[in-house]
C-alpha cells in the first residue's frame, strides 16, 4: 500500500513528463508495439501507424523525454526500444486495468 508520506516524495517533474507521455493513444500504441517487437525505427513506425515522420518523431521525443523509451544509432537511423522493465510492467498494468 502506498502511504501518504510516500506520495510527498514523488519527483513532480518526472511525474509530469510520464503522465504527459501517456496522455496520448498513439504514444501508448507505440509503447505496446515496442513491447511486442522489442525495437523499431522511425520508418517502421510511420508505416505501422500511418502517420507522418514529423509526427512519429515528436511522439518518440516525448516518450524519450519521459524516459519511457531510448534510442541507439544504427548508421543514419535511430532504433527505439523500451527504457526498462518498469515501463513494460506499467503497460501490463494499464492493459489489465483497461480490460477489467
TrEMBL record:
Entry-linked Pfam families: HTH_5
Keyword Transcription regulation attached: yes
Transcription is among the record's keywords: yes
Gene3D superfamilies, per the entry: Winged helix-like DNA-binding domain superfamily/Winged helix DNA-binding domain
Entry keyword set: DNA-binding, Transcription, Transcription regulation
CDD domains for this protein: HTH_ARSR (cd00090)
Transmembrane region(s): none
Domain spans labelled HTH arsR-type: 7-100
Protein name as catalogued: Transcriptional regulator
Natural source organism: Apilactobacillus timberlakei
Amino acid at each position: 500500500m502506498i502511504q501518504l508520506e510516500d506520495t510527498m516524495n514523488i519527483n513532480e517533474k518526472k511525474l509530469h513528463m510520464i503522465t504527459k507521455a501517456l496522455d496520448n493513444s498513439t504514444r501508448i500504441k507505440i509503447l505496446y508495439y515496442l513491447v511486442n517487437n522489442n525495437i523499431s525505427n522511425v520508418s517502421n513506425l510511420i508505416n505501422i501507424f500511418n502517420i507522418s515522420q514529423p509526427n512519429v518523431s515528436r511522439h518518440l521525443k516525448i516518450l524519450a523525454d519521459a524516459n519511457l523509451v531510448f534510442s541507439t544509432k544504427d548508421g543514419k537511423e535511430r532504433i527505439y526500444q523500451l527504457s526498462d522493465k518498469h515501463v513494460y510492467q506499467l503497460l501490463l498494468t494499464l492493459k489489465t486495468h483497461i480490460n477489467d
